[in-house]
Amino acid sequence: MTEKPLIIISSRTGNTLAVGHAVCDALPGAVMMRPSEVPDDLTPYNPVLLGFWCDRGDAPEEILRIAPRLRNKTIGCFATMGGNAETPEALDWMKRTSESLAAAGKNNTLAGTYLCRGRIAPALFERMTAMMGGKVTPEREARRLASETHPDRMDLERGVERFRTIFGVNW
């Protein structure tokens, strides 16, 4: 039996879902599903790509629950965040989070990662604003506005190219 690539997506605002669709569409044979849809038997799938968003400095809980089930897989991780995804801090978060997810299972290999900016969930922005005294500084508003247009076409193309480079067009 030939193994199929599996893309597991956790998306709150649709940002990560957009990246996941682009990657899935570009890589022949790939199957995409949400964590709640992942079957018990994962032997038919390899590589496994985990798509997630930055949730309080970690991957969301539903991805954290899936990761220990992965065994002997080649792992790729992609994520979206409301801030600048090119800062050293953001790239360090992506590296640490992805390494932790791959290590949560057994005998997995982390093949690569991709991180891009995404829209900030309005409810989250409001909650954070309330926690900061209810005021939005011009700098914070500028960061929010910069995230509103992402992921854009170039973000999607970069994500596709990243995983094509790692796994090849035909896996």
What report would you give on this structure?
- By secondary structure, this protein is an alpha/beta fold.
- The protein contains 6 helices and 5 strands, in the order βαββαβαβααα.
- The protein has a 5-stranded parallel β-sheet, sandwiched between helices.
Pick out its properties:
single chain, 171 residues, alpha/beta, 5-stranded parallel beta sheet
Biggest β-sheet description = 5 strands, parallel
Q: What letter string, H or E per element, gives the SSE order?
A: EHEEHEHEHHH
Oligomer kind: single chain
Order the strands across the largest sheet as they lie in space: 2-1-3-4-5
Number of helices: 6
Count of β-strands: 5
Computed Rg: 16 Å
Structural class: alpha/beta
Mean pLDDT: 92
Cα-to-Cα separation, first versus last residue: 15 Å
Low-confidence parts: none
- The helix fraction, in percent, is 40-55%
DSSP strand content: 15-25%
The outline comes out as globular
Topology:
Blueprint: E1 4-9, H1 15-26, E2 31-33, E3 45-53, H2 61-66, E4 74-81, H3 88-104, E5 109-117, H4 122-131, H5 138-147, H6 153-167
Parallel strand pairs: 1-2, 1-3, 3-4, 4-5
Helix pairs in contact: 1-6
